[in-house]
Target: NADH:ubiquinone reductase (non-electrogenic)
Amino acid sequence: MSQPTTTAPPTGRHRVVIIGSGFGGLFSARALKHADVDIVLISSTSHHLFQPLLYQVATGILSEGVIAPSIREVLARQRNVTCLFGHVDAIDLATRTITARTLDSTQEYSYDSLIVAAGAGQSYFGNDHFARYAPGMKSIDDALELRGRIFGSFELAELAASSGREQDLSRLMTFVVVGAGPTGVEMAGQIAELSKRTLKHDFRRINSKEAHVVLVDAADQVLPAFGTHLGGRAEARLKQMGVEVQLGAKVVDVDNDGIVIEDKDGQRRRIEALCKVWAAGVQASPLGAQLAEQSGAGIDRSGRVEVEPDLTLPGHPEVFVVGDMISLDNLPGVAQNAIQGGRFAARQIIRRLKGEPTQPAFHYKDKGSMATISRFSAVASIGKAQLSGFIAWLMWLGVHLVYIIGFKSQITTLLHWAVSFLGRGRGERTSTEQQIYARVAIEKLGDRFTPRSGLSPTPPSDQSAVPAPEQERHLSAG
Ligand SMILES: Cc1cc2nc3c(=O)[nH]c(=O)nc-3n(C[C@H](O)[C@H](O)[C@H](O)COP(=O)(O)OP(=O)(O)OC[C@H]3O[C@@H](n4cnc5c(N)ncnc54)[C@H](O)[C@@H]3O)c2cc1C
Model:
């Protein structure tokens, strides 16, 4: 690893560093468009990811490019922003610098104001090894891997039926989704639709409609954040679609071939399933813990930083934390919180630079919550209104279309939705071997996998990087 190089500010203007190109990062940068500042937006992904539609990439409705435009392109016309690709490893509040790594090089950036919007990752509640068998839904890599696993399971089932291995069919055609929040409900609903509508004419040996989709959650309700009425509606609709909903069911183990569940009475049982999806639990970026340690701020169980009411760190008015990384007044981990928080932080910086008084507190405007279950069916909670069915689904379509970044992406999305929802086709079913296996293969290489600036990883120095036979089994099946 090279020594850090320090980047000098291009002008003598106030330097704002923004960490993250998600909702918080993008909307804070945009809100600083007319400010007399130099902005460096640094992110470990070179795209802005519209996470709410990840499940549509995983189930073949949308391509990844539509929901993840290049952040450089999105901000191309904003002259005061420089977008850089890098993973921030360290923030030093005392020296006002951050250290970021890009492949094998390290850079340091100094700031006058810092906006930290590094979001949250998947949480496996201390069982990180589950990720190997049950990918989460947080990134484009996750969605593409899941796409490969979902469509791949049907392929393997067809193969098993063709070669007389009927005993494997149940495992290959059982899909378990863990977590009955919006993402889990959306995934379960979409896998059911795939099997019942999209794939029904595509196979010769299996009947795709016989796929068994199971949605499990330790809680007693589907969509707990939506209340019992809408949660009940969503559950009823899922059941109508053939999804088996298992509540009060805690996942205690996951392996290549299935999942172990502990019911409320303490009894354990197993569901044989090759394809598992993890849609339960989030953990804020580890940068939150660094900020908390250095500033004395509290941190909650999900790693979120207890910020001041104006989204700054205690004793550090120059550092704002926004979006999924914050713990404040039970604000939800949703896009609107990140968007509004990012804009608020930007406006505070502008006020300070103009010598105007700043706002003492951030006030979140709740614009409501929505979750879609299947085509033509969604639930929406907006103020006192509790909507479900077709009207809620139309609202869901409209809201998501508005927030997709870029006119091109909006038009493409609309066309793909017409194909998938009015017809039964899905134009984005392509999956490749690398999509399915790359994460596990890189994980197995461990320290031997060293990305280099030349874009070619260092080859492993010995044969130990080659999976042993029992490891291959995980790769080939999962
Ligand atoms: C599958 C799914 C479905 C969702 N559906 C909805 C929905 O329907 N409605 C809704 O309102 N919300 C939804 N959400 C939640 C919503 O997407 C998040 O609340 C929102 O994205 C949070 O914005 P953020 O800016 O805090 O973080 P993110 O959008 O996650 O952005 C974090 C950014 O930080 C970057 N980053 C992370 N670590 C580092 C680092 N160390 N160095 C540099 N960069 C880093 C990442 O690359 C990313 O660009 C969903 C989330 C998921 C995962």
Remarks:
- Residues 140-162 form the longest helix (23 residues).
- The chain has a mean pLDDT of 92.
- The domain at 128-280+368-431 is CATH 3.50.50.100 (FAD/NAD(P)-binding domain).
